[in-house]
Amino acid sequence: MNEGRTRVEMVVATIRQRIAGRSLTPGARLPSVRGLAATLKLSTSTVVDAYERLVAEGAILARPGSGFYVANQAAPFALAEAGPKLDRAVDPFWISRQSLEAGEADLKPGCGWLPPSWLPGDGMRRGLRTLARADGPALADYGSPLGLPQLRQLVSRRMGERGIEASPDQIMLADSGTQAIDLLCRFLLEPGDTVLVDDPCYFNFHALLRAHRAKIVGVPYTPSGPDIDVFAQVVADERPRLYITNSAIHNPTGATLSPVTAHRVLKLADQFDLTIIEDDIFADFEHTPAPRLAAFDGLERVIHIGSFSKTLSASARCGFVVAKPEWIDGLTDLKIATSFGGGRLTAELVLNVLSDGSYRKHMETLRHRLSRAMSEVSARLKNLGITPWLEPQAGMFLWCRLPNGIDAADVARAALEKRIVLAPGNAFSLSQSATNLMRFNVSQMLDPRLFEVLGNALARRG
C-alpha cells in the first residue's frame, strides 16, 4: 500500500515538474493513461490515481471522452523545478546562494570570484572621487542603450590586442556578462531550441538556459577543447541553435582551446548553421592570449562576451557584447525593451579605472599572485590525495579529482557544517558524470582551516 502511494506521488511530481518547466503548457493534452503507464512502467491504476489527485488540486482538467489537460491558469514559472532533480549539495542555485549569502568569516573556495583584498580598491576609490566631481548628466541621466562611447572605444582597442577586429559600433555594453548572455538567448532562441554546452561547464549556463526553456545538450570537454568527434556527431544529430563556451580560460576546468580544435569547431558551425557565444570574462587573467573563436571567425558566427566584474569589482557590474553590426542593432532594441537605458554611472566608473595606468600594473601583480596561489594550493591538495585534472596556464580555478570512491557532494555537505562553501563537480556536469570531481578557487584557499576540514571530511569517507 505504501509502495503504491509512493508511485502515485512520483507520477504527480513528474507532471508538476513538466508543468512548472513549461514543457506542458496551459491547455496542453497530457499523455494518455495507458501511454504514460507504459512509458513509466507502472500500472494504469497508478496513473489514474495520480491524474485524479492533480485534478483535485486544480493543476489539470478531466474532459470525459477526450482525456486530461493542463489547467488554463498556469502556475508561476518555477526555475528550480525546470531541470533534473539534483541533490541540493550539487544544485547550482545551492552553490550560488551559499556563496553570495556567506558571512565575512565563512570560507568560499567554491565561489567564482576573487577576495576583495585582491581587487583594485584604491583605483575604485579614485574613480568614485572623480565621479563625485562629474557634471549632472553623468550622475543623473540614462545612458545610451548601446553604452558609453568612450568605454566602447576602449573595449574595441582591447579586443584588437586579442586579434578580434571590432569597431565601437559592434560593441554593446551590458550590466554584466550574465545579462549579455541572457539578452542573446532572448534574441536568438525560441522555447524548445537546442543549445550545446561543454560538459562540464559554468553551472549558471544550465540555470540560464533552463529559464529560456531551451533543450540543453552536453559535449565532453578535453584539455584542448570540446571532444571534437562527439561535437560533430551531436551537431549533426541535434542541429543546435547555439553553442555556449569559454575559449581562453575554461570554467571550471582551466583548460585552453587549441587552434586545431577551434578550426574544426568553426568548420562544423559553418556546415550546420551554428551560432557560437564565446564567454571570455576571464581574459585579463591570461599571461599569453590563447586562441579566440571570434578572432578566427571574424564575428561571422561567433558572438564575443566580456566583463569587468572579475578583475575590478562585482559591485560595479559591467559587461559587453561584441557581434556583427546587424545583430548589435537588434540587440540594442531588445536592451531598450528589457532595461531601457544603459548603466551610465557604472560605465563611467569602469572607464575611469581602466584608463588609469594603475590597472595594468594591478593585473600584472594579480596574475603573479594567482600563479603562486595555484602552485601552493595544488601541492596542498595533492598531499590530501586530491589530484588536479590538469595544471592550468592561468586563472583561479583548479578542477580536481577526489580520492577514489568519495562523492564530492558528501564532502560539500560536511564542509558546509564548518562554514565552508565548496563546488561539487556535478553542479557543472549536465550528464552528472562528475561525482568524484570538484572545482576549487585558489584565491579563496589560503586559510589553513580549509585543508584541515577537507582532510577530515576525506578521512571519514575514505
Note the topology.
Elements: H1 2-20, H2 33-40, H3 44-56, E1 60-63, E2 67-70, H4 92-101, H5 121-132, H6 136-140, H7 149-161, E3 171-174, H8 177-188, E4 194-199, H9 203-211, E5 215-222, E6 225-226, H10 228-238, E7 242-245, H11 259-271, E8 275-279, H12 293-297, E9 302-307, E10 319-322, H13 325-339, H14 344-355, H15 358-383, E11 387-388, E12 397-401, H16 408-416, E13 423-424, E14 437-441, H17 448-461
Helix pairs in contact: 1-3, 2-3, 5-14, 8-13, 10-11, 16-17
Main beta sheet, described?
A: 8 strands, mixed
In the predicted model, the low-confidence regions spanning at least 5 consecutive residues are: none
Head-to-tail CA distance between termini? 39 Å
Q: Helical segment tally?
A: 17
Query: What characteristic shape results from the CA principal axes?
Result: globular
How would you portray this structure in words?
- It is a single chain.
- With 462 residues, the protein is an alpha/beta fold.
- It has helices spanning 2-20, 33-40, 44-56, 92-101, 121-132, 136-140, 149-161, 177-188, 203-211, 228-238, 259-271, 293-297, 325-339, 344-355, 358-383, 408-416, 448-461, and strands spanning 60-63, 67-70, 171-174, 194-199, 215-222, 225-226, 242-245, 275-279, 302-307, 319-322, 387-388, 397-401, 423-424, 437-441.
- The protein has an 8-stranded mixed beta sheet, with helices on both faces.
- GO terms for molecular function: DNA binding.
- This is DNA-binding transcriptional MocR family regulator.
- In the C-terminal section; belongs to the class-I pyridoxal-phosphate-dependent aminotransferase family.
